[in-house]
Amino acid sequence: MNGRITSLTVRNFRSIRGDISISLDAPTVLIHGPNGTGKTSLLSAIELGLTGAVSSLARFDPNYLTYLPHKLSPDKSAHVAIQADEKLYGGAGGKLTATGSTIQGEGKVSEEQARFYTERCYLAQATLGRLLEIYEHQDARNSDSPLTRFVKEILGLDALDALIDGLHLSGDVRRFREPSPLFWAARSDAPELDRAVATASARSETAERERDQIEVNLRELSKTILNADEAITPDRLRPELEQRAAEHEEKLGRLAKIRRDLNAAAAQVAVAANTEIGAVRAVAEASSSAAREALAQWQTRSGVRLESLLTTIQEAFPEIPASSSDPTAAHAAATRAVQGAGTRLRRTVDADDATTKALGEIATSVSQGQGRLDAIERELAAKGGANRELAEALSAISNHIIDDHCPVCSRDYGELGNGPLAAHVSKEIGRLVTAAGRVEALVSDRSNTLAALTDARRKQTELQGTLLSPTERESVVFDLAQRDEWLNSLRELETEVVLGSRLIRDTTQSAQTLATLNSQTTSISGLRAELDNYGLQLGIKPEPSDASLAAIIQTMTSELDRQEAIESAVKANLERALTNLRTFAVAQQSLQDTTKELEALKEKQAKSATCRQNADRRIAVAKDLLTRAQTIRGNHVRDIFNEELNTVWRQLFIRLAPDENFVPAFALPQIAGRPIEAVLETHYRSGGKGGNPRAMLSAGNLNTAALTLFLSMHLSVQPKLPWLVIDDPVQSMDEVHIAQFAALLRTLKQHGRQVIIAVHDRQLFDYLSLELSPTFNGDRLITVELGRNAEGFTTAPWALTTFEPDRAVAA
């Protein structure tokens, strides 16, 4: 089986303070550290990360969660993260936090794998100590030996034995008469009790139906008072219904008074309408009403459009007036503001376009000037050796040339065969004079070009300072487009704005004319204010000052009819609700009496039925559980205490103690279903049985027997997990046993097991590091040395050793 634990990260866990992170990706991992530095805590962290619990601690202290976080942990919690081969164990889980009361997170392996790890893969130091206890003197006062008690605890057989003993009574139902005397009484009383419950249930259902029907009627009549989920309480609901009825009666009286006053006002208006001024006023009222209706129609159509447009424009130009009093003035002010802003924005865009064009032309000039300057520099570099002073010097020397001997170095130029020396010097003087003239022209041209380039770059810098950024230009362009759209919308509304202003003037003039006529009619001059007061009492919105008094009276009369009808209906409902409430109280009391009787009978019936059902169920469950427990115990014993376990244990023990003649073994139980009594014995190698290992083996071999017992339990079945994690396994071993144990570990490593060993002895750690060092390519060894720094924090440096061929042997 492939698959390893690859890494472990621990923070503030048990005796480990601070953060440590180590790699475990090797077939063998050795962990060393003095006592108290955290070896056992590190192995417990591995168990927690893999299984989600620390079973090695739970066996001794059920409250072990309290002690998992380090005492000095800043957040009062411990953190563990472990990684293993995801192809075998999946990618989820492995990150856990212990808060002192709970463990948050899930283990890396499944529940079945976790159980295998706890029982077969991890041998804690405390567990090894308990294994050694099986060889101590047996207490004669106990029925089970320490070995038997320990084996039952490891395998769960003590719980099975206790369960089987407790289920003995379930074999015969007559055994339950004395502990359950009510069982038989419940059987005999059941038929009569069922009939009484049925009779009481029928009476209760009849009373409930009557009560529910009355409640439905009452809720419908009182829906303005009661909430849908509110219970009906007659004592609370009756005063409120009576108060509501009195309030509606009083309101009907006020409405009757208003009706009398409105009838008198209508008669007074009719008399005034028969006079000459009354006829003129009627015409003025019609004219004013028509003007108001026309203005209202304009306001609902064009007025809404104008107001919406002006509201939008006022967000940019708050100084624009509202359109309610003078639409023409507001329209003109908005048009001027939008046109002015559009002109300014367009100038800004045009100026930015001109600047952009100028920058493009200057950039071309700068590029061309720089190219010309680079060409001049290259030509000047090529003419670097040409100057007029050298030509003058050669001309002075040429007067001293008589033959082909150089007057400077005395060399015979004729040896070169290139003609006379004087001719050569004369030619060189001409070349230098020509080149010097070209250099002077290039220097002048460079100066002019550099000045022009500097001026162009200065202008370029100045223009770039005035250029709009892309964001600014985008904002200006969109603002200009918005102004154009507003201006188009304002032009579309020009005609409607003129119409609205005219309608406002007409409405104002008509209202003023009607007000003058009303003031001239002394008989009804104070009637309008009185009608406004009645309107407030009826909740009617006040009519305009030019509205017809007859129309106002008609509107109020219609509203008065409506409110009187509503109040009369509500008052009648409240009176019916009071009648139903009295009936409901009687029905409710009857239902309560019947329900109490039924509940008492049902409670007695339920107790009787529960006694019978629980008795029958418990008897059946107990019988089935007894059978299954006996079967499970037998199967479990056969699976563990078989010849295969003894064979593996024998092979491992002989390998670690080759000189011991007596080999420990389990005495196999032969009778299925009987309580197990685990007994150890020894077998002589040449045949025959010996006594108990305590009497036959030395102390060192007893420790070896305990260790090999654990290894045999791991190897006797197909492993679900390829790991062996052992805490300080070489207690009381001599050098021979330790050497054989190291050889056994090498064998286990070659058979696909990942071995993690923790030791506290330094010399033993160095010896195992040497013995378990890699012996083939691909083999690895990881060593971890636990310690503490000056501040008390845990340190865990780890080292990886790989296979290195022996070059000397190879040579």
Automatic annotation (TrEMBL):
The keyword Ribosomal protein does not apply. Residues 5-765 form the RecF/RecN/SMC N-terminal domain. It comes from the Bacteria. The keyword Coiled coil applies. It holds the Pfam family SMC_N. Residues 197-258 form a coiled coil. Keywords: Coiled coil. This is AAA family ATPase. It comes from Rhizobium leguminosarum. The lineage of its organism: Bacteria, Pseudomonadati, Pseudomonadota, Alphaproteobacteria, Hyphomicrobiales.
